């Protein structure tokens, strides 16, 4: 990986409602905040669903019930 380009490549001009970042790390769902100290405060959901399959056995996926309000959105990590 060339981390010298990371700042420009990873900069997102606006905050998404849902950010999907699948990886080999433990599956997780978190509510994150951007610009907490300003009037443009934005909350969004960051989801790592994990891998759908892992070797011989099943993996994990996320069942997401999206609502525009992060307080009403529900996400469940399901194991296969």
From TrEMBL:
Signal peptide: none annotated. It is found in: Nucleus. Keywords: Nucleus. InterPro entries: DNA_pol_alpha_bsu (IPR016722). GO terms for biological process: DNA replication initiation. One of its GO terms (cellular component) is alpha DNA polymerase:primase complex. Its main location: nucleus. PANTHER family: DNA POLYMERASE 2 ALPHA 70 KDA SUBUNIT, DNA POLYMERASE ALPHA SUBUNIT B. This is DNA polymerase alpha subunit B. It comes from Aegilops tauschii subsp. strangulata.
